């Protein structure tokens, strides 16, 4: 997959992996991931951490068959009670996860299918911080075969296993005419956001194009009850930005994307 090494490629092949090989994460990959996380933490003012070899965190989910051999996770840790930090955590953690995807690692965002207290025991969480949620990481089951698959095979697998709300759902605040008239980069951005993971698989984010000034607003769907909505907002914004091209988001519910 050497010719497919961009983040948009990772967007097109990433899917939630629930079964992993019963082997430790490669030490070199773990070291590279930790370095990437450290760099992101400085940029995002977070305290995200890679935690390895802690299967007890997922023991209950493993007993029910929800996960197999899950033992490593990216812990999203940041300031307690800070809505913007939660959004940044989703945005920047997904940036790390997409890089890990290009390295052949599997991942799955977890909001409820883990032991949060046990997970926090293995993290550095100060009195002013909290553990938002986590992302399982590791070599997917049948890792050798997974690595041998072509980009096209992996993309096809995602399409056949990934459920998503419709394009109309993601642009519910726009009329049919406005959707058709929106620029192609907006449509690509929304299609990329449709492939974004969501901690509870609720996908609570809507996008709307504003022709008056060419900006895009990202808003949380008021009809979707999602305790991890702010994290999901950050994840969806990143996916949109990757496909839409050069531009920047303002943080917050209703924040605008300005394309350069």
From TrEMBL:
<protein>
    <submittedName>
        <fullName>Nitroreductase</fullName>
    </submittedName>
</protein>
<dbReference type="GO" id="GO:0016491">
    <property type="term" value="F:oxidoreductase activity"/>
</dbReference>
<feature type="domain" description="Putative nitroreductase TM1586">
    <location>
        <begin position="7"/>
        <end position="244"/>
    </location>
</feature>
<dbReference type="InterPro" id="IPR029478">
    <property type="entry name" value="TM1586_NiRdase"/>
</dbReference>
<dbReference type="InterPro" id="IPR000415">
    <property type="entry name" value="Nitroreductase-like"/>
</dbReference>
<dbReference type="Pfam" id="PF14512">
    <property type="entry name" value="TM1586_NiRdase"/>
</dbReference>
